[in-house]
Write a structure and sequence with these properties.
Strand order of the largest sheet: 3-2-4-1-10-9-11
Number of strands: 26
CATH superfamily of the largest domain: Aminohydrolase, N-terminal nucleophile (Ntn) domain
Helix content: 25-40%
Radius of gyration: 23 Å
Largest sheet: 7 strands, antiparallel
Oligomer: single chain
CATH class of the largest domain: Alpha Beta
CATH topology of the largest domain: Glutamine Phosphoribosylpyrophosphate, subunit 1, domain 1
Structural class: alpha+beta
Bound molecules: guanosine-5'-monophosphate, magnesium ion
Strand content: 25-35%
Shape: globular
């Protein structure tokens, strides 16, 4: 997971890129970066840390230009090293380009090895550099970005939403299965492409539509062109974007994330009703689910845990005692709301189970009699190879365990996960248009040792000139 953004605006892009990245901060807290083309050169600034820590007015003033991209990083592949911070800038045959990527590829090791045998050297351990190298290799042959992206889509397996600056042009494309989100909107004097619509909201822009899976969008001072490079018979949107990763106020592929979570909360009550004193969402990721559960049950929503919003995720503690303290600082139980009460805790997901176990214990220690747990995602039983940090089967608490066994392990009074059927209904798409690999162990791309649910991808050659008026219906 990562957050990406690209902006073309004659009024300057550095400040809008900064605001957009700020809105996408939840997608990655490890590092942040911006690259801007100033008419002759690409300038970049990137560093470890949160967006607000990395940039200041002085730095943004040094990033003048009318086209640029930005990135916030959440590590999946590529170690936590300074050279892996995106965007990457490249010089190539007298021209410069910059690239930022959200996603994870499953076949880059072989591609990279092939390049290395041909004498190519790499500066980082990321997939993103392999993508850039493939683009450069194709550009060397044909000189056409469209051909380069077509070749890329033919050869790459995995998830990739990409923004790229090639001199004064912004390119954006999304893998043919649409695994990771990417949408287009307006800014005061131009266009923005971003992982989530909240980045467009932050600029008071208008969400136009999503980048279609397999589409290449080209934006410059004259407007937008779209090329539909590849079309899959079924797409594979990552369901976990709706469950946890995206902000609840984002609209992804036409669906408000908040609606999905709230409806799942309602269905959690219908599937597993429980008579308790209060519904208690685990902040912040459980909130919309808790609201739905309270609506459906008529049981009052009453927060039992308050989150300290000023505690970063970088609160790394050396000892177990210090880590326990950190959990207490991050989530403080409200004893008055919990003592001698029965409560239902609502959260979005259980991955390893360690957080959930600690939270149940915290609520019990505050005097709760019964602590029921309801979860907005079905059990996560298999790893994610396509961008989410879902670890090995051994580390996943629901892998090889029944619901009862997980319930016992996290010491809850009762436990229920939403059914796959209701999850799919809440998202409002056909189940075959979603990637549910971490739930089913069945993946939309071939992965060694795993089961594939194959998609057929066709390569077309359609370019359409778009203007703002015809935007919505063109693709
Ligand atoms: P667990 O009980 O598995 O230790 O933690 C579950 C909690 O982790 C849930 O509240 C969920 O919101 C959160 N969570 C789920 N996926 C991720 C992720 O990829 N990164 C982080 N930082 N938290 C996650
Ligand atoms: Mg959470």
């Amino acid at each position: 997971m990562c957050g990406i953004v690209g902006i073309v605006d004659a009024g300057g892009v550095s400040l809008p890129l900064y605001y957009a990245l700020y809105a996408l901060q939840h997608r990655g807290q490890e590092s942040a970066g911006i690259s801007v083309f100033n008419g002759t050169h690409l300038r970049k600034y990137k560093a470890p840390g949160l967006v607000a820590e990395v940039f200041d007015t002085e730095i943004l003033r040094g990033l003048q230009g009318s086209v640029g991209i930005g990135h916030v990083r959440y590590p999946t592949t590529g170690a936590n090293l300074p050279e892996n911070i995106q965007p990457f800038n490249f010089q190539f045959m007298g021209r410069s380009f910059a690239i930022a990527h959200n996603g994870n590829l499953v076949n880059t090791a072989g591609i990279r090895a092939e390049f290395e045998r041909a004498g190519q050297i790499f500066c980082t351990s990321t997939d993103t550099e392999v993508i850039a190298t493939m683009i450069a290799a194709e550009l060397r042959q044909s000189g056409s970005i469209e051909d380069a992206i077509r070749s890329l889509m033919l050869h790459l397996r995995g998830s990739y939403s990409v923004v790229m600056v090639y001199e004064d042009v912004l390119y954006a494309f999304r893998d043919p299965l649409g695994l990771k989100p990417l949408c287009i909107g307006t800014t005061s004097g131009g266009y923005i492409v971003a992982s989530e619509s909240v980045a467009i909201d932050a600029l008071s822009g208008e969400l136009l539509r999503d980048v279609v899976p397999g589409e290449l969008v080209r934006i410059d001072g004259d407007g937008i062109t779209s090329t539909r490079i590849a079309t899959a018979d079924r797409v594979a949107h990552c369901f976990f974007e709706y469950i946890y990763f995206a902000r609840a106020d984002s609209i992804i592929d036409g669906v408000l994330v908040y609606d999905v979570r709230r409806r799942i909360g309602q269905k959690l009550y219908e599937e597993a009703p429980v008579d308790v004193d209060s519904v208690c969402p685990i902040p912040d990721s459980g909130t919309a689910y808790g609201i739905g559960y309270s609506e459906a049950s008529g049981i009052p929503l009453l927060e039992g845990l308050m989150k300290n919003r000023y505690m970063g995720r970088t609160f790394i503690m050396p000892t177990q005692a210090a880590r326990e303290r950190a959990v207490r600082m991050k989530l403080n139980p409200i004893r008055h709301h919990l003592e001698n009460k029965s409560v239902v805790l609502i959260d979005d997901s259980i991955v390893r189970g360690t957080t959930s176990r600690r939270i149940v214990q915290l609520v019990r220690d505050a005097g709760a009699r019964e602590v029921h747990l309801r979860i907005g995602s079905p059990p996560i039983r298999a790893p994610c190879y396509l961008g989410v940090d879902m670890p090995t089967r051994e580390e996943l608490i629901a892998s090889g365990r029944s619901e009862d066994e997980v319930c016992e392990s996290v010491t809850a009074t009762s436990l229920h996960y939403i059914s796959l059927e209701e999850l799919v209904k809440a998202i409002g798409r056909d189940s075959t248009d979603l990637c549910t690999g971490c739930l089913t162990g069945c993946y939309p791309v071939p992965i060694d040792g795993e089961i594939e649910h194959r998609r057929v991808v066709e390569f077309a050659d359609e370019t359409v000139q778009l203007d703002l008026e015809s935007f919505g219906e063109s693709v």
